[in-house]
């Protein structure tokens, strides 16, 4: 059962990765600029714009909302304390 769940998860992520790949290639954006972690995939699914800076925050485990994303886009540094 656990193995089936793991395979199912891998398949889901692969489908999302493919969707993201098409999205990024359509925008002619280098997909290598943003590593696709599960967190980043989740954010992209919610329509949050991903920049390298925002992706960095996601990697640090900071929960990203549209408001947080807006702050990051304005160049405001968000720390774990914030």
UniProtKB/TrEMBL annotation:
It comes from the Bacteria. This is Uncharacterized protein. It comes from Sinomicrobium pectinilyticum.
